[in-house]
Amino acid sequence: MANAIFQSATDAPTFGSSPRGRSLSITAFPPRSKSFSVKNPAFHQTGLNEALAEARKSLDEGGMPIGTILVHHVQGIVGRGHSQRIQSDCVIHHAEMICLQNVGRKPASFYRDCTLYTTLSPCSMCSGAIIFYGIPSVVIGDNKTIRGAEDYLKQNGIEVENMNSDECESLMKNFIDTHPDIWQEDNPQLIVTVSQNRRKSTKTHL
């Protein structure tokens, strides 16, 4: 069922190309209704898998393995993005920002019928963009590596669901273990936060 909803969007535009005038390879997403909720792990795992595919693309390019897709509840996958901070040498090129850039110009009403899928808990910058454009729901793959501005999202009425994906967490852990200096570039506090989270997790399992 989920695979029929999320068709591969291989024609979706990527950073550096014009998103306008190109059709995306998508199928319909169930229309949003009062009963719509992001709290459906089985359904949304397919969406997260698409974001994971973007994360792997970034890793293959030498970047941080973070990926995002934007799904319109009628049109399907309308945007894709992965971290380009290293590749483009630009500190604001986070996966969520690239994804929104690749969606192109849309009316405000368009974003109100979307769900954003991201492999890593979004930072305050990306959360601000989500709030600014009125995206009502966010599905997160991993918030153990770093817990972003999820409270900020919730305080602004955004529905947030964490999938606790082992695959998302493993991708980031392997990258951080191999490239701690690159990970720390984004925010000097990130390494401290990750270490604290890991210590808490270890104590929990003792």
Automatic annotation (TrEMBL):
Instruction: Give the GO molecular function terms.
Output: cytosine deaminase activity; diaminohydroxyphosphoribosylaminopyrimidine deaminase activity; metal ion binding
Which UniProt keywords are given for this protein, alphabetically ordered?
Cytoplasm, Hydrolase, Metal-binding, Nucleus, Zinc
Q: Which reaction does it catalyse?
A: cytosine + H2O + H(+) = uracil + NH4(+)
* Compartment annotation: Cytoplasm; Nucleus
Associated pathway: Pyrimidine metabolism; UMP biosynthesis via salvage pathway; uracil from cytosine: step 1/1
Q: Does the keyword Zinc apply?
A: yes
Look up keyword Nucleus and say if it applies.
Answer: yes
Q: Which Pfam families match?
A: dCMP_cyt_deam_1
PANTHER family per the UniProt record, alphabetical: CYTOSINE DEAMINASE, CYTOSINE DEAMINASE FAMILY MEMBER
Its recorded name reads Cytosine deaminase
Taxonomy, top ranks, is: Eukaryota, Metazoa, Spiralia, Gnathifera, Rotifera
